[in-house]
């Protein structure tokens, strides 16, 4: 009884409430996107019921995780990681859906292992990098060893969105471990190289700036040279990777660089979702009344483009309220960092923060047509059992760390 | 590590993307909101697909086989329905379709409500006028004139065209196929789909009702459709129709006429036929069920996708193997045919009850004597024949330019051992196999390629329909590469050619009915016991030469027909050859 009371004292009710509100908003949006009218008749499909079922299952699983003793939970991290990576491998043996092998299909259920890999990678990174007295070299090699296999598998699937998210997560956790800050430049510079390869003069200019910056922060010539060599290597590697990409991925990237190029394919989707969002204007067209949605202009409207449906029907008010809700949720997680003192757990929470932020931001950016189109769900909102379950598990882990911290010391 | 400062940095890092998003939201929804809502209101960014005209298919003399007919179709767009009850009752008043059926159609497509639904096909002019008068009351209804595919003959090689299926669409959606488009489903329509179809074009409509352009797309992105190429086949429509007309009515079977030198197919008949035009317009459930449940399997292509025991036609292969292995001297007369053959306690009969007496190999082929081959079968190893059949690609698929084809079968020692658990029964099976019965199975097409090889000196040609594309931008496909050569000596080949010639032209030959004045005809008949019914399957396989050049191979197969190959199939071959000599050969081919 005392145990429970302590647990309640440390329980973050605001985190719970914001999570539940996000789920409810998601259910409303899924209901709207699977309902539309033809003339005077309203048509519905049962996605909303399925999503509700998944929400209930997820909350039960989440509660079980909160109740699980921390030492036992930590024992599960490594097996969980191995299992999720294995599932990722198994998905390659599955029949392809839309040219990608991202899903494991068991009877009526489709599992998306990528969502669980994100969670298990974060937990393992926290556990491994949380150890005291790691050398810089150990931090870098271990984090790469844990994350790179999954990233490679995700690129092969291909699920570039999730691969990108996983990269952001690793970067975030590594930065907040004890690594000296100049490594950040080292870590980020290859990404900038990729962007600049499209224009060679820009790349040369960028290299000059990079060398100058590295020189200014008084790095040894060895580190500076290493960074430059790595970047040159990436510069020459990009064309090869480009050739490996599937046609539709190439077209999506090209479309992003110039949306008018392919208005029929990826560009069409970006423009239609932006029209949906923009036409929502200040107060929206009203619940169930989105015309872009009703006229079937939005593909994938209950999954990847669900934000467009919300923005179309609830306008700027609704959309910005949803973003503020996400911000509130994120800030509750940041606040939890203040009360949790265990290093491993803190690093994991940093990972979750980067997961939720990057995934939500990238998804909404895709909806706005300001990021290349990739299939990424909006956490808690998009239709899909795997995404829902994984997101709730992540929040439950944070809640668990908060309520049970008293037992560790 | 987590100083207050680093927490603040973390928070700001996480805050930044959301702030950026809010700025973009403000721009799109507030600053540019009215523009986007105008775009949304007039559905202004619309892509109109322009479908290419499908290439037509002609016979060798440019007579049409598959053609496009314009048809006026009535469509409904669910998204524009104002009142479903009104629309449904209007349609049911004017067309033979009930209100319920209209509602059902719309309901079935409820998740694709911006996709038009075909309500009625090929409307008469009167109906179009009648409906047009009130069309402005129902914005969801409109007419479209589209081509649909019609075939001038019932056949089993053109295949048909229909709406793309979900599975096909999933495979092709990265290309220019759209959800509602037509695609070749079977036969040549499927085989030559990329050439016949052409390429879809599109027009981007970005002007609102008042003619204002929003200039979302600055360049001209319209793309013209490229029509599919017309195609010429090697088929001779007159010969095809003649064969259809003389084939015994009410019986199933196949007739193949091809050029033994180059594999060009002149006629490709499979009976019974079915109304292929019904597929082009969307087949009714009723007719489909009828076709599927028909025990005669009218949709089965009996030339290339059905296998049968080749019966006495197989004696040719058998003789070749015996000669090549020096199992028997062809001049030797090893057996006296009394009309039956005792093996253990079983008796195997010859087709001629009174027996053929003593004969050599050439006479045995000519008279199609079973007992001779029973005797030889006991001297030959089973796998020698299997090896000949498989290593010479006689049972392999012939690579005909059709999407589906079956391979043949000949049992091996290993296969029998697996099947029966013992090799003891093989000698008995060999007796049956020597006259092409039992487990041996071939398609009429494979028989055709084999007999063509006998005719042309040993080349296994690649049978094909394709002759040329009319559109010069398409490549002319080559079928010159053969499926290999029969690995037999010139002596054996000469002997077989001679025996087949004697079977037609000498008194007493079983194929005598195929004889033709003016041509040099060679051939072999076959009569296979039919375990399914009382009548046997009858065969004829042969070829005819004019001016010492083999020009036509004919394979005839009639399922379950009263009579023998000599009395039914061979006379049919004689008629076809006569028609070919009089009506087909005399018309010169104008090559373009």
Write the SSE topology.
The complex is a heterodimer of chains A (409) and B (592).
Chain A: H1 2-10, H2 13-33, E1 35-38, E2 41-44, H3 47-67, H4 70-90, E3 104-106, E4 109-111, H5 113-129, H6 136-156, H7 160-176, H8 182-196, H9 200-216, H10 221-244, H11 247-257, H12 266-279, H13 291-294, H14 306-339, H15 343-368, H16 385-403, H17 405-408
Helix pairs in contact in A: 2-3, 2-14, 3-16, 4-5, 5-6, 5-7, 5-15, 5-16, 6-7, 7-15, 8-9, 8-10, 9-10, 12-14, 14-15, 15-16
Chain B: H1 4-31, H2 33-41, E1 46-50, E2 57-58, E3 64-76, H3 84-94, H4 99-108, E4 117-120, H5 125-132, E5 141-151, E6 161-163, H6 166-172, E7 182-184, H7 187-191, H8 193-197, E8 198-199, E9 201-205, E10 226-227, E11 231-233, H9 237-246, E12 253-258, E13 265-271, H10 277-280, H11 285-293, H12 314-324, E14 336-337, E15 340-343, E16 346-349, E17 357-358, H13 361-367, H14 370-377, H15 382-391, H16 413-420, H17 426-434, H18 444-456, E18 466-469, H19 490-505, E19 520-528, E20 537-546, E21 549-558, H20 565-584
Parallel strand pairs in B: 2-11
Antiparallel strand pairs in B: 1-9, 2-3, 3-4, 3-5, 6-7, 8-10, 11-18, 12-13, 12-21, 14-17, 15-16, 19-20, 20-21
Helix pairs in contact in B: 3-4, 9-20, 13-19, 14-17
Q: What does this molecule look like?
A:
The complex is a heterodimer of chains A (409) and B (592). Chain A is mostly helical. Chain A is built from 17 helices and four strands. Chain A has a two-stranded antiparallel ribbon with strand order 1-2. In chain A, α2 (13-33) runs antiparallel to α3, α5 packs parallel to α16 and α6 packs antiparallel against α7. The two termini of chain A are 19 Å apart. Chain B has 592 residues and is α+β, with helices and mostly antiparallel strands. In chain B, the strands form seven sheets. In chain B, strands 2, 3, 4, 5, 11 and 18 form a six-stranded mixed beta sheet that branches. A five-stranded antiparallel beta sheet of chain B has the order 13-12-21-20-19, sandwiched between helices. In chain B, strands 1-9 form a two-stranded antiparallel sheet. Chain B has two domains: 71-146, Alpha-Beta Plaits, CATH 3.30.70; 237-584, Beta-lactamase. Classes of the chains: A mainly alpha (409), B alpha+beta (592). At the A-B interface, α12, α13, α14 and α15 of A face α1 and α2 of B.
């Amino acid at each position: 009884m005392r145990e429970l009371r302590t647990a309640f004292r440390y329980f973050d009710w605001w985190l719970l409430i914001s999570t539940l509100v996000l789920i409810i908003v998601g259910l409303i949006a899924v209901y709207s996107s699977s309902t539309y009218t033809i003339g005077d008749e309203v048509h519905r499909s049962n996605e909303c019921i399925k999503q509700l079922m998944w929400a209930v299952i997820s909350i039960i699983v989440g509660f079980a995780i909160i109740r699980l003793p921390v030492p036992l939970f930590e024992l599960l991290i490594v097996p969980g990681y191995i299992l999720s990576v294995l599932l990722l491998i198994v998905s390659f043996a599955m029949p392809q859906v839309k040219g990608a092998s991202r899903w494991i299909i068991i009877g009526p259920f489709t599992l998306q292992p990528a969502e669980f890999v994100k969670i298990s990678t974060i937990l393992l990174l926290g556990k491994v990098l949380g150890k005291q007295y790691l050398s810089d070299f150990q931090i870098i090699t271990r984090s790469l060893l844990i994350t790179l296999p999954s990233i490679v598998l995700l690129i092969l699937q291909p699920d570039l969105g999730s691969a990108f998210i996983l990269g952001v997560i690793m970067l975030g956790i590594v930065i907040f471990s004890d690594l000296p800050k100049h490594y950040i430049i080292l870590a980020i510079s290859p990404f900038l190289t990729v962007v600049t390869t499209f224009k060679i003069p820009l790349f040369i200019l960028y290299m000059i700036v990079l060398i100058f910056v590295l020189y200014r922060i008084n790095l040894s010539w060895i580190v500076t040279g290493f960074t430059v060599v790595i970047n040159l290597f990436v510069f020459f590697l990009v064309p090869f990777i480009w050739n490996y990409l599937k046609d539709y991925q190439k077209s999506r990237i090209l479309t992003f660089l110039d949306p008018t190029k392919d208005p029929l394919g990826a560009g069409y989707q970006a423009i239609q979702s932006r029209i949906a969002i923009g036409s929502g204007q200040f107060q929206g067209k009203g619940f169930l009344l989105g015309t872009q949605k009703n006229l079937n202009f939005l593909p994938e409207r209950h999954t990847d483009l669900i934000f467009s449906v919300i923005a179309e029907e609830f306008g700027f008010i609704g959309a910005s309220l949803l973003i503020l809700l996400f911000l509130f949720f994120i800030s509750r997680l940041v606040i939890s960092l203040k009360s949790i003192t265990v290093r491993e757990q803190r690093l994991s929470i940093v990972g979750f923060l980067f997961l939720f932020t990057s995934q939500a931001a990238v998804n909404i950016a895709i909806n706005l047509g300001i990021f290349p189109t990739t299939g990424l769900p909006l956490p808690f909102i998009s239709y899909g059992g795997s995404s829902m379950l994984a997101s709730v598990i992540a929040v439950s882990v944070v809640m668990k760390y908060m309520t049970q911290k008293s037992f560790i010391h | 590590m987590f100083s207050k400062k680093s927490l603040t940095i973390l928070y700001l890092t996480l805050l930044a993307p959301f702030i950026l998003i809010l700025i973009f939201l403000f721009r799109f929804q507030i600053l540019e909101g009215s523009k986007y809502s105008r775009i949304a209101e007039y559905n202004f960014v619309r892509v109109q697909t322009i479908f290419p005209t499908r290439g037509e298919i002609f016979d060798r003399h440019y007579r049409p086989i598959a053609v496009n007919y314009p048809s006026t179709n009535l469509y409904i767009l669910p998204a524009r329905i104002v009142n479903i009850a009104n629309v449904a009752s209007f349609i049911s008043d004017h067309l033979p379709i009930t209100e319920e059926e209209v509602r059902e159609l719309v309901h079935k497509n409820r998740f694709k409500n911006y996709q038009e639904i075909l309500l009625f096909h090929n409307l008469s002019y009167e109906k179009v006028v009648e409906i047009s008068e009130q069309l402005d009351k129902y914005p969801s209804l409109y007419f479209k004139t589209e081509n649909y595919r019609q075939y001038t003959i019932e056949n089993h090689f053109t295949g048909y065209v229909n709406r793309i299926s979900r599975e096909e669409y999933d495979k092709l959606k990265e290309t220019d196929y759209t959800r509602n488009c037509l695609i070749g489903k079977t036969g040549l329509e499927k085989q030559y789909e990329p050439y016949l179809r052409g390429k879809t074009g599109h027009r981007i409509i970005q002007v609102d009702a008042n003619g204002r352009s929003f200039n979302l797309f600055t360049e001209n992105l319209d793309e013209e459709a490229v029509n599919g190429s017309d195609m010429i086949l090697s088929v001779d429509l007159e010969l095809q129709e003649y064969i259809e007309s003389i084939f015994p009515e009410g019986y199933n079977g196949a007739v193949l006429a091809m050029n033994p030198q180059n594999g060009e197919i002149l006629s490709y008949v499979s009976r019974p036929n079915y109304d292929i035009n019904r597929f082009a317009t969307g087949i009714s459930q009723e007719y489909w069920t009828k076709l599927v449940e028909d025990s005669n399997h009218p949709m089965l292509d009996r030339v290339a996708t059905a296998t049968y025991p080749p019966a006495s036609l197989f004696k040719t292969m058998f003789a070749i193997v015996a000669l090549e292995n020096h199992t028997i001297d062809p001049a030797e007369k090893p057996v006296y045919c009394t009309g039956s053959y005792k093996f253990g306690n079983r008796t195997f009969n010859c087709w001629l009850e009174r027996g053929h007496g003593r004969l050599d190999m050439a006479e045995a082929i000519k008279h199609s004597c079973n007992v001779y081959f029973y005797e030889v079968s006991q001297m030959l190893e089973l796998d020698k024949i299997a090896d000949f059949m498989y290593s010479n690609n006689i049972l392999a698929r012939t690579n005909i330019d059709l999407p589906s084809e079956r391979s043949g079968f000949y049992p091996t020692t290993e296969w029998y051992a697996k099947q029966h658990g013992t090799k003891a029964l093989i000698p008995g099976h060999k007796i049956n196999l020597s006259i092409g019965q039992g487990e041996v199975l071939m398609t009429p097409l494979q028989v055709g390629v084999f007999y063509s090889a006998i005719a042309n000196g040993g080349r296994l040609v690649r049978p094909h329909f394709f002759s040329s594309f009319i559109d010069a931008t398409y490549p002319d496909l080559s079928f010159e590469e053969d499926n290999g050569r029969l690995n037999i000596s010139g002596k054996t080949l000469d002997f077989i050619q001679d025996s087949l010639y004697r079977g037609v032209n000498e008194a007493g030959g079983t194929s005598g009915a195929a004889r033709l004045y003016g041509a040099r005809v060679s051939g072999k008949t076959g009569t296979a016991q039919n375990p399914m019914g009382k009548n046997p399957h009858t065969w004829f396989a042969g070829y005819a030469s004019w001016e010492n050049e083999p020009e036509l191979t004919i394979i005839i197969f009639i399922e379950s027909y009263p009579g023998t190959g000599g009395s039914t199939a061979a006379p049919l071959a004689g008629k076809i050859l006569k028609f070919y000599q009089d009506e087909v050969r005399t018309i010169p081919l104008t090559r373009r």
